[in-house]
């Protein structure tokens, strides 16, 4: 029997598709993304979430390391980058990186990303990974976006495959999903013309998957993109996942306009918009197993609520993450294991500590 909430929202046909395990179409995605009935979307996404994971909600004890804020891409949506020689520019040496990561409890996952630095040599990245892996042999290292991998291939004169193999030998476990932004040539030209194309990002991610290096995937939304561009981005990820099965998790990232060139032109996303996109992502991405409520961008309370709209991962402790701090988008410095588990239980779910590959600890 179709729930009355779904019937009133005019989504009975989509409900029947979901119940039958049928794949949703682009038109379905656009209908869902325009629906004003948030609770109906939550009912649909919750059914899929519970079919996949029951009441389990994952988290990880992790640390973030942003090794430099110097970046040649100069994206208009970014408040983090600095040009070389700027008084606020920095680069961490491998030794400094290890010292930073050693402050506090030992992490189970180490997340390393930074700017596209025009002067750092290729050897720096291998030395950084090797130093971190030597200091934390039990931790999984999730490092370097596809944008950074492209940069390393260019400065080394090596293929993407060669670079990934060498990084893996130095300690790399998997790739984060950043740098995808929105797969739209129109937006790339307007907001991040120096960054790699959608095709290149997907090519690098799929190459990593073929080498046994899983990755995450992201979408930065809430700036100048259209609903059609949001849905098309999700569907391109779904198509790539059909080929490689290498995406572990999708992470929707609401744009933080503060301190960026878009401040004043773009308003921050609303909680309604964030939860609706979370639900639509869960419904369209039927082949990506996990959906993350990234509390660093969403805020702790909205991330907790997102668990009822399809998300099954509350990320982790996230000690020192500078990119969201630059845009004023972070409300807490870190969360302890006890705090994360309290948030999950209070929302009615079962906390499961995981490693970088979503294996329960």
UniProtKB/TrEMBL annotation:
InterPro entries: Aldolase_TIM, CofH/MnqC-like_C, Elp3/MiaA/NifB-like_rSAM, F420, FO_synthase_su2, MqnE, rSAM, rSAM_sf
UniProt binding sites for [4Fe-4S] cluster: 71, 75, 78
GO BP annotation list: menaquinone biosynthetic process
Gene Ontology molecular-function annotations: 4 iron, 4 sulfur cluster binding; 7,8-didemethyl-8-hydroxy-5-deazariboflavin synthase activity; aminodeoxyfutalosine synthase activity; iron ion binding
Catalytic EC class: transferase
Catalysed reaction, written as an equation: 3-[(1-carboxyvinyl)-oxy]benzoate + S-adenosyl-L-methionine + H2O = 6-amino-6-deoxyfutalosine + hydrogencarbonate + L-methionine + H(+)
Binding site for S-adenosyl-L-methionine: 77, 181
PROSITE patterns, sorted: RADICAL_SAM (PS51918)
Cofactor binding note: Binds 1 [4Fe-4S] cluster. The cluster is coordinated with 3 cysteines and an exchangeable S-adenosyl-L-methionine.
Cofactor(s) essential for the protein: [4Fe-4S] cluster
Pathway info: Quinol/quinone metabolism; menaquinone biosynthesis
Radical SAM core domain: residues covered: 57-289
UniProt KW keywords: 4Fe-4S, Iron, Iron-sulfur, Menaquinone biosynthesis, Metal-binding, S-adenosyl-L-methionine, Transferase
Domain of life according to the entry: Bacteria
EC number annotated for this UniProt entry: 2.5.1.120
The family this protein is said to belong to: Belongs to the radical SAM superfamily. MqnE family.
Record's function text: Radical SAM enzyme that catalyzes the addition of the adenosyl radical to the double bond of 3-[(1-carboxyvinyl)oxy]benzoate, leading to aminodeoxyfutalosine (AFL), a key intermediate in the formation of menaquinone (MK, vitamin K2) from chorismate.
UniProt cross-references to HAMAP family, sorted A to Z: MqnE
Name this protein carries in UniProt: Aminodeoxyfutalosine synthase
Gene: mqnE
